Amino acid sequence: MEKIVILTGAGISAESGLSTFRDEGGLWAQHRIEDVATPEGFARDPALVQGFYNARRVQASKVQPNAAHEALARLQRDWPGDVVIVTQNVDSLHEAGGAKDVIHMHGTLAGALCSACGHRWTAPPEMAVGESCPACARPTARPDVVWFGEMPYFMDEIYDHLASASLFAAIGTSGQVYPAAAFVHEAQAAGARTIEINLEPSPGTSGFDERLVGKATQTVPRWVGHLLAPHT
Ligand code: APR
Question: Which of 31, 38, 48, 109 has the highest Cβ tally under 10 A?
Answer without folding.
Answer: 109
